[in-house]
Amino acid sequence: DAGVIQSPRHEVTEMGQEVTLRCKPISGHDYLFWYRQTMMRGLELLIYFNNNVPIDDSGMPEDRFSAKMPNASFSTLKIQPSEPRDSAVYFCASSPTRTGWGNTEAFFGQGTRLTVV
Amino acid sequence: AQSVTQLGSHVSVSEGALVLLRCNYSSSVPPYLFWYVQYPNQGLQLLLKYTTGATLVKGINGFEAEFKKSETSFHLTKPSAHMSDAAEYFCAVSLTGTASKLTFGTGTRLQVTL
């Protein structure tokens, strides 16, 4: 398996523009997570899905952020309108369900480095 | 609720020296504990994890960690550092009974010098 695939790897956009980040999880994984990494706040969980259904979006910072998972092999994180403070590295991760809860390994993509100018 | 504290945002060791990266956790229930490594411009990669059973956990690249419930610690060690170990290391906790939702520490950047 190629692992979790994110695109684009780098994105530079102007303030006010819409930004869409994409993620292809590992086939067979039923959990998908979106994380944001900044120097100030470290790694933060934004939202996660189970079987394509959003379970917890309490980490989404504002209504400008939205995430979808239309099928098991694709998810998007959209920021509209973007602001300079959204500049960060956004990671997508996927995880299989094993026996019991909470003991699964999250596999991370290489991230999308977003710069909003 | 759970939280993770990593002591030392930067650690520098000489090549061949012992690596010790500290992690303490707070959890209301027995936790699942993880160490992840992030190389420059890369995503996070799992080094090792503690779920149940043996408290000394061996991971990849010669790393190991010991779960000490009495000290609420899960420190990461490696007997002999290699230049290729230079990276950022994250300790993370996930509660039993929940989906694999990780709470990460702030990370420790390991520098290895000649």
Structure described in brief:
The complex is a heterodimer of chains A (117) and B (114). Chain A is mainly beta.
Features:
heterodimer, A: 117 residues, mainly beta, 4-stranded antiparallel sheet, 11 strands, 0% helix, globular, B: 114 residues, 6-stranded mixed sheet, 5-stranded antiparallel sheet
Structure description:
The complex is a heterodimer of chains A (117) and B (114). Chain A is globular and about 40 Å long. Chain A has strands spanning 5-7, 10-13, 19-24, 31-38, 42-50, 53-56, 65-71, 74-79, 88-95, 107-108, 112-116. Chain A has no helices and 11 strands. In chain B, strands 2, 4, 5, 9, 10 and 11 form a 6-stranded mixed sheet that branches. A 5-stranded antiparallel sheet of chain B has the order 1-3-8-7-6, with no helix packed on it. Chain B is mainly beta and 114 residues long. The mean pLDDT of chain B is 90. Chain B is globular. Chain B has no helices and 11 strands. The A-B interface holds A 4, 31, 33, 42-43, 45, 48, 50, 55-56, 91, 93, 95, 100-111 and B 32, 34, 36, 41-46, 49, 51-52, 90, 94-107.
- Distance between the first and last residues' Cα of chain A: 36 Å
**Biggest sheet statistics of chain B:** 6 strands, mixed
Helix-strand makeup class of chain B: mainly beta
* Model regions low in confidence, pLDDT < 50 over at least 5 residues of chain A: none
The largest interface is: A-B, 25 and 27 residues
Query: What is the typical, i.e. mean, pLDDT of chain A?
Result: 92
The unreliable regions of chain B are none
**Share in helix of chain A:** under 10%
User: What is the rounded distance between the termini of chain B?
Assistant: 41 Å
Structural class call of chain A reads mainly beta
> Helix and strand succession of chain B?
EEEEEEEEEEE
Number of helices, where a helix is a run of at least 4 consecutive DSSP H or I residues of chain B = 0
For the secondary structure, the number of strands of chain A is 11
Range of strand content of chain B: over 45%
